[in-house]
Amino acid sequence: MKPKFWFALAGVAAVLALIIGLVTVFSTGTGPRGYVANTYTRAANLDLSGDSDNRAYTSPKAPSVVAFEISQKWRPQSQYTDSSGIYLRYSSDAVVIKPYQRGSVIHVMDARHAYNRYHSHVGGVWGWSSPRGESFRGRGPGAGK
């Protein structure tokens, strides 16, 4: 066979691999929001009112198991657990996992909305000192001085 055939065949294989890779990346979503959407069951009836960015999902697993699964896939910047639930903070999103029936309800929302809603739980833990989170610089000791 001629070398042109092999080059053409290699080109077609490379294009197919690129297409498959792009479809995989964009269909699974990136970040914790995409992971939760693709892994757990959507429960629109449990969306929190007053936050159009909030999405609720359910799982038959315990909150600690769900938090472990999400944290293994996407490492949170901060994590807090109390008797009300598990709070995972990422750069722009937050994942709040609470007990629900015999499993869990998972709320994915903007980190600011989560901080405002759950300030009484995460206020001293997520690094923000003001109630709206404006004072957090997040670049380490002495940054911004």
Automatic annotation (TrEMBL):
InterPro entries from the UniProt entry: DUF4247
Domain of life: Bacteria
Name of the protein in question: DUF4247 domain-containing protein
